[in-house]
Amino acid sequence: MSCNNKDNSLVWLPSKLLFIYSKENDNRQALTEALNMAKNAQASLTIVTVLESILNTEALMSTDLEDSELYQSMMASHRELLTSVSEFTEDVKIDHKLLLGMPFIEVIKEARAGNYDLVVKAADNEGLLNRVFGSADMRLMRKCPIPVWLVQQDFAQDMDRQKPKIVLATVDASENYPDQELQTRQDLNLKVIEIAVSIALAEGAELHLLSVWHAEYESGMRGPLVGMAEQDVDKYVDDLKHQHDESLNRMLAHAYKLLGEDVEQYIKPKVISLKGAPRKKIAEYARHIDASLVVMGTVARTGIAGFIMGNTAENILLQLHQSVIAIKPSGFVSPVA
Questions:
Q1: Which of 112, 133, 162 is at the close of a domain?
Q2: GO terms for CC (predicted)?
Q3: Neighbouring-strand partners of residue 46
């Protein structure tokens, strides 16, 4: 990894990547990203195909799967894909696997059983809804306890891209939560920063760290029913901004202390504090800077099976048109057994 300091144990380096082959999508860009990450981190990469419906599953499972026509057909597809991105495959250990069942469920089971650090997949594009992420992608992001990287299918455009890539990491710097939830959110913030830094270092990308804050009572205070003096409302808003920015600075100081000051000096992240609703401002800012990747947390609570993703996170994801790495906090309980 570029400028990787091996002494910084907290710089995120995946050792095992799981790539999901999709017959419906152009897999080249997603596989290129996975191969680059695997090479930079000296990680292994497993390419998996999931067959959703097999008529003779029991008969198939009673034979040697690797000798089956289905497996050989899968291998032919995998080899064709790898040939198309052969310039990126050097020095990467690549394995192959065939899974049978509901795709997102089997992917989650395999990711956990195999102790993978990152799941990578080409994003489904639901064109009629103008969404980058399809319903299957959303199920994977909601329920997978392991970070999921959904990559836009813009292989030709990305290969021709002249300017540096931009990675946008979104964090929640607010400290107005109960103690346990605050600790979970702060740990998740660190995880987001850690992975975003790793990606930026690996790809020589520009890194933006964004936190959005909201003056909850401002509109009511300015309205006719309350009618507060303008300068008092302005002071309320200014105080909130000051509190948020101090909290953001504390968070980043803690992250840099753990990751190493040399990392901060090398990538020189741009830190942005924006006022407004996160569900709107994050997508707007990502478009404004032409981000190629958004790294974000998707859950605020842990230990509750079935509590998958907050409404704000889901609304943000549905508005994004960039590749996304969706991250869960430590201790997240997936409903997939």
A1: 162
A2: cytoplasm
A3: 18, 95
What is the bridge-based pairing of β-strands 148-151 and 323-327? Answer: antiparallel
Same domain, 149 and 274: no
Please tell me the number of Cα atoms within 13 Å of 231 on its side-chain side.
0
Cβ pair 167, 291 in contact under 8 A: yes
CA–CA separation, 58 and 72 (whole Å): 18
How many residues appear in the chain? 337
Torsion angle (degrees, nearest 10) of CA 79, 84, 88, 91: 20
Task: Please count the structural domains in the chain.
Answer: 2
Structural domain boundaries enclosing 132: 1-162
Planar angle of CA 274, 198, 168, nearest 5 degrees:
25
Among all chains, which residue has been given the structure tokens 């600790």? 183
149 and 11 housed in the same domain: yes
Q: What is the pTM (predicted TM-score) of this model?
A: 0.87
CA distances to 36, 159, 162, 200 from 21, in Å: 17, 20, 28, 25
Token look-up 């057994």 returns 337
Tokens 């309350």 identify what position? 226
For 14-61, write each residue's pLDDT tens digit. Answer: 999 999 999 889 999 999 999 999 999 999 999 999 988 655 555 555
Strand ranges of the sheet holding 118-122, from the earlier edge strand across to the other edge = 94-100, 44-51, 16-20, 118-122, 148-151, 323-327, 293-297, 166-171, 206-213, 270-275
> Where does the pLDDT of residue 305 fall: very low under 50, low under 70, confident under 90, or very high at 90 and above?
very low
Grouping H, G, I as helix, E, B as strand and the rest as coil, residue 99 is strand
Domain identity same for 99 and 209: no
